[in-house]
Design brief:
Serine Threonine Protein Phosphatase 5, Tetratricopeptide repeat, 3 domains, 22 helices, flat, mainly alpha, about 80% helix
């Protein structure tokens, strides 16, 4: 009797322990503020899509939690992200942020910032659609007046920021004199962290007013420091000024510096993204570990219950006890095999995620290189000459050919220099045809350069592909052959 009571008491204790709630693992529904902070971290790591998803979730949660502060901040950050591709949607989202701020005002500084952003997006939309800038001027003037009224408590930061926005709007309306005046005022009162942006606007206004010497002086006064993007902007604009003065040597030096800063900027962003993905993967692994520990805890408790029950039955029926023990061993083997299978599946998923992350990084790197290549050549006077050729003859000088080839070599790691070395049979006109093919110049434009028909251009490309590179596959184009080489 005492043994039976002991077994029953042990069963009751184990049942109580098994029914206790297990501590929840990380990954539960976050708060609106947590989603907002995670979105900022995602944007910092250049994960735009994830950041927008987190901001949308933060907006939904903030609305349900009646957290108006987080609501309008999330809407303003989402408007910033949308402004890169959809200015109209960004403007609507910024208006919603202003509406939610006015429902419960809590910071005059944020009020000025929201008005300034609305004015900026409205000016972008007016510029894109070629419509009046009245709305942009109205909101930006309102932001400027509030900044002036709050100067004693907030300082000159917002005054300089709103003056810079007004200068940009007047510059977009071709009112360069007023834009220059506002830009000078913005620069005069700008704090250290806003001085660089104000100087950029001032220099641009000076260029529009044909004050090239003063604009160059402003660019050379700018101190980007570790800001690689600002350093790239300074060097690229110095290159433009040098080109306008026909100073080829200075322009080449500035372009080299700009490309160097752009490359550093790309690799810095790549390192930030890699750190963000590593942190995210570590958090996911920790959640998986806690989930597995929770499941193992419950299974262990229920296993003990089964063992105790088997022990109680064995006291009266030894043979049945032995049968139960054999069944338990089989069950244990099944669980062991299942665990091994689950572990293999988990490892496979982790490997697949790592490969997908690496492939994504490679695709982003290739996209950035293509962007830099297109960015440089779209601003080249030679490419503008090709685009504006139409049906007229296009004359490209030996200096133009040299500039195109040197720029391509700088971008693609001496690609055409190696092409000349590896294929000595290439004539100069063959190299030129390869350069135009790499730049995706239309056969019609190539015909205008050499005075050939389109079919003659196609025939020359086919001849180069077969005789120089030895490619007989009719499905392969000369452009694909050059990419493979």
């Amino acid at each position: 009797m005492k043994t039976a009571r002991f077994i029953l008491s042990l069963l009751a204790g184990l049942l109580f322990v098994s029914c206790r709630p297990v501590p929840a693992f990380q990954g539960a529904e976050p708060t609106a503020r947590a989603c907002y902070d995670q979105a900022l971290a995602a944007f910092k790591a250049d994960s735009t899509q994830l950041g927008e998803q987190l901001l949308q979730q933060a907006i939904r949660l903030a609305d349900s939690e009646q957290d108006l502060h987080t609501l309008y901040l999330s809407q303003l950050e989402l408007a910033k992200s949308l402004s890169w591709g959809n200015t109209e949607a960004a403007l609507d989202m910024a208006r919603l942020a202003l509406h939610n701020y006015e429902r419960r005002p809590d910071s005059e500084r944020n009020h000025i910032i929201i008005l300034d952003y609305i004015g900026t997006y409205a000016s972008q939309l007016a510029f894109n659609n070629d419509t009046p800038f009245d709305e942009a001027l109205r909101y930006t003037h309102q932001a400027y007046e509030l900044a002036i009224a709050s100067r004693d408590s907030l300082g000159n930061e917002l005054v300089s920021q709103t003056l810079t926005s007004l200068a940009n709007i007047h510059w977009a309306t071709d009112d360069y004199a007023e834009a220059l005046r506002l830009a000078r005022e913005a620069t005069a009162c700008a704090p250290a962290h806003l001085l660089l942006g104000a100087q950029q606007v001032l220099a641009r206004c000076l260029v529009s007013c044909d004050s090239l010497d003063e604009a160059e002086a402003v660019y050379r006064q700018m101190e980007p420091g570790k800001d690689l993007q600002a350093a790239y902007i300074v060097e690229s604009n110095l290159a433009k000024l040098a080109l306008r003065r026909n100073d080829t040597e200075a322009a080449e030096t500035a372009i080299d510096e700009a490309f160097s800063h752009a490359e550093d900027l790309y690799f810095d962003a790549l390192h930030q993204k890699d750190a963000y993905y590593r942190a995210t993967l570590s958090e996911q692994q920790e959640n998986e570990r806690l989930r597995y520990a929770s499941q193992l805890h419950r299974r262990t408790i229920w296993g003990l219950l089964v063992i105790v029950l088997l022990a109680a039955v064995a006291a009266s029926l030894v043979m049945r006890y032995r049968l139960k023990m054999m069944a338990q061993r089989r069950l244990s083997d099944v669980w062991s095999r299942k665990h091994e299978i689950d572990e293999r599946i988990h490892q496979t998923l982790l490997q697949r995620q790592g490969m997908e992350a690496q492939q994504e990084l490679l695709r982003q790197r290739e996209g950035t290189i293509r962007f830099l290549k297109d960015f440089i050549f779209q601003r080249s006077e030679i490419i503008k000459k090709l685009d504006a050729g139409g049906d007229r003859h296009v004359n490209i000088s030996a200096g133009d050919w040299w500039e195109i080839e040197q720029t391509l070599n700088a971008i693609d790691h001496d690609r055409f220099k190696r092409l000349r070395q590896n294929y000595p049979a290439l004539r100069e006109e063959d190299v030129q045809m390869c350069i135009l093919t790499s730049l995706h110049v239309l056969n019609r434009t190539i015909g205008n350069i050499y005075g050939l028909t389109i079919s003659a251009v196609q025939h020359r490309k086919l001849k180069i592909k077969k005789e120089i590179f030895g490619e007989d596959d009719p499905e392969m184009t000369l452009e694909q052959v050059l990419e493979n080489v």
